[in-house]
């Protein structure tokens, strides 16, 4: 983030607008993705849209020298791929979870978090080695191109599981519980996106660390989030969805406060770890809850995914605008309000039929 900001020569709010491009592309794709997944299935959707992700990452990498517009175009194309990819993966995860009869979605989302951990660690190493952002993004695009085709072969074979008829996919947007789950995904996604997008810059600018240390701070956040998602199913099976999410939200609130108000880097890093655990369960549990009834799973998962991506769409410009006035570190306090809202609304996670 600091390297991209410096190369493009933009302010925090300008950087937020650049990051807006990938989320904008994803949200646009998400509006159509339930129908696409219903017709071609998760396996084919992921395989096809991975091509857009690779092309977009490569375009953003090669466009850095041309300015902000070229980078945003590449990120937008990548977002178009990721939006469809996201819904397809979650529909597949719901189907696997339902087939096995136990909570697994947080562990599937741990794969997302693990990718972020590895990306942050790779970023820190490449910054320390003075490798360019262009080379870094091209490397990631190549890895996606190599990994996705063999990975999707392990998906369940049925192409149209768990979906309402395509003509009725919009019904989910009129369901109170589904909209509440979408609101929970939004608050959790915004709290998560605030950390993902801005922690590296906050540590670099406000804690006065190097860019490599800033990337390492982000790695602590996503590592803790990954650990929370790996442990999440055990907590959910023991306490239930509602209690597990509320407990982690409270821990996350304490973590954000320690990050923003901490007197030292060590306290800030401890706060970041608690914050990461605090946002670990919100989105994956919302996906699981949206898939409680197989016949409407695709449409409802699509609603939750749109709301989650709307959060990632909102986080960069919202935090950037606040950061222009109070500084990046203080702007992170937004996450306290979001996590509190998540704890208050957590009753919507209760499985259909009680429990």
Task: Compile the SSE list and pairings.
Layout: H1 2-8, H2 12-63, H3 68-100, H4 105-128, H5 133-151, H6 176-205, H7 211-239, H8 241-261, H9 265-278, H10 282-290, H11 297-326, H12 328-331, H13 334-344
Shape by Cα distribution: globular
The rounded Rg comes to 19 Å
* CATH C-level category: Mainly Alpha
Number of helices: 13
The termini sit apart by 43 Å
Kindly name the structural category.
mainly alpha
**What is the overall pLDDT average?**
85
Beta-strand segment tally: 0
CATH architecture: Up-down Bundle
Helix content: over 70%
In short:
By secondary structure, the chain is mainly alpha-helical. The protein is built from 13 helices and no strands.
3D architecture notes:
The protein is mostly helical and 355 residues long. The chain has one domain: MFS general substrate transporter like domains (Growth Hormone, Chain: A, Up-down Bundle). It is 80% helix and 0% strand. Helix 2 packs across helix 3 (68-100), helix 8 (241-261) runs antiparallel to helix 9 and helix 8 runs antiparallel to helix 13. It starts with a helix and ends in an 11-residue tail after the last helix. The model is unreliable at 159-167 (pLDDT under 50).
Features:
355 residues; mainly alpha; Growth Hormone, Chain: A; 13 helices; globular
